[in-house]
Amino acid sequence: MDQRPTIREQIDACRPDSDDLLLPEHAADLAELHGSLRESPEARGDCERIQRNDRIIRSAMQDVSLPAGLEAKLLAAVQAAQAVPLAGLERAIQEEPSAEDKSVTSIPVKGNRRLFIKVAGGAVAASLLVGVIAYLNWSPNEQPITKDELATQVEQWLRAVDVRAMAKPTKPTGLPTGVLGTVAGSSSISSSQGKITAYSVKLRGSSATLLMVATTKAYPVGSLPFTKIGVSGGLQVGAWQKGGVLYVIAVPEKADAHLDQFAPQQPIG
Length: 269
Hints:
Layout: H1 7-13, H2 31-39, H3 41-63, H4 70-94, H5 99-102, H6 108-137, H7 147-160, E1 182-191, E2 194-203, E3 206-214, E4 227-229, E5 235-242, E6 245-252, H8 259-262
Antiparallel strand pairs: 1-2, 2-3, 3-6, 4-5, 5-6
């Protein structure tokens, strides 16, 4: 019988600042995580903490320069560590009792010493691990994102979208709940938030651009109905956040299209 991965394992499978949660090929494997992020504040908190730790590790691996001479020091430390059991082995061979004494000779001291080395080594490793975990889980309180900062980010994201270069869908692509229209193309763009999925949406002759940003950050918007975002570039823009995803929808100001066409303020039906 197949065992489903736990929520923690599903969170660990999602790379920070990526669109793993949005990819159709992962939908079945991450279905439970989607539901938990939507319904459980505890799951959202766990996801944010784990992804924050992953970002710290990624940043440390990419940004920290290695001190001069580190390689030589590590090699010397390894050689010194390897020399300890070898020296003990040599002494044991030299001190090996004669055949007639073997039956009455015990070696509790050496056994205890080896046990002590193992325990001490384990204690050192455990203390280092505790220190690393404590460091990773400590971080200053993140400053909340303001509406102006969100507007600046949205402008950058929308400028990076090239609708003409989008891939045409090979099969019908579903849109998020509350968004109307048909997907005419899709692409992904890179940003400081990671990969962002972009869609060109058509509805009764009008066009809109929809962005989906997987994030653990809290933006100054609610769930639907959308919050209007003031941006430059001749666009009407609305945004909302739900289930660990920030949604942004934009239509040209001079066109006949309106945001309410694609994301109605009132439920239909």
